[in-house]
Design brief:
single chain; about 230 residues; mainly alpha; 2 domains; two-stranded antiparallel sheet; two-stranded antiparallel ribbon
Length: about 230
């Protein structure tokens, strides 16, 4: 049985002010970045990382993470579309970003930064491993408003409506779909809470949080492939 709220299709624009549009996706990604930065600052300070490095590294991670996320989305997932619409590549509100591209870009930045400044890679990586799932969970709700990251058709109360233009051709006659973005957000929040609890433990093996994040998140993404 479908819920009453399923009669309302999500729209990408929150507020339209003449030539200026405020998009849900951009707003939620911005909030995810701010929440992630604040949490990273708190955790890194607890591990003794100097404030100068916290701000500098955060700046580079945010900038190159956004670039990497957009590059990943354009060239690895939707190049067949964007090669015909090159002007839309820089329109980050159109189609969004790929989290895997952002993570890879952030990893490169982290390696270069810690090596240049002679910092512990594992110390910083473990802090970021706690931050990432929280930021991802927040950002995933932007996919809802963009009507993306949904699964197969369904008719349960949690299913979400998707406009015809956003449906895969094979499911063009279906209206409601599994909200994969929501499932991933829930799993990410659970992962965040577990990693945060582990972070508070004494004598934690360096890199444990980082590798735990990589393994669990990879498993989550693998599940969505079905």
């Amino acid at each position: 049985m479908l819920a009453f709220w399923q009669n309302f299709y999500p729209k990408p624009i929150l507020i339209s002010l003449g030539f200026i549009n405020i998009y849900w996706y951009g707003l939620l990604v911005s909030f995810a970045i701010l929440a992630g930065f604040y949490l990273f600052k708190v955790l890194a300070q607890k591990r003794g990382l100097a404030e100068e490095h916290i701000y500098n590294l955060s700046f580079y991670l945010i900038i190159f993470g956004l670039i990497g996320g957009r590059v990943g989305h354009v060239f690895f997932y939707n190049w067949s579309y964007f090669k015909l619409h090159l002007s839309e590549i820089i329109q980050v509100w159109h189609g969004g970003m790929a989290i895997l591209g952002a993570i890879l870009a952030g990893l490169v930045v982290l390696i270069v930064y810690v090596k240049k400044n002679k910092l512990s890679f594992w110390l910083v990586a473990d802090c970021l491993a706690v931050v990432l799932p929280l930021s991802q969970a927040i950002g995933r709700f932007g996919n809802y408003f963009n009507q993306e990251l949904f699964g197969h058709p369904c008719n349960y109360f949690w299913c979400i409506p998707v406009d015809y233009v956003n449906r895969p051709e094979i499911f063009s006659s279906s209206v409601y779909f599994q909200p994969l973005f929501l499932f991933e957000a829930i799993f990410s929040i659970v992962l965040f809470l577990v990693l945060l609890r582990l972070f508070k433990q004494e004598r934690l093996a360096p890199g444990l949080l980082f590798f735990s994040y990589l393994m669990v998140y990879s498993a989550i993404r693998f599940l969505w492939s079905f």
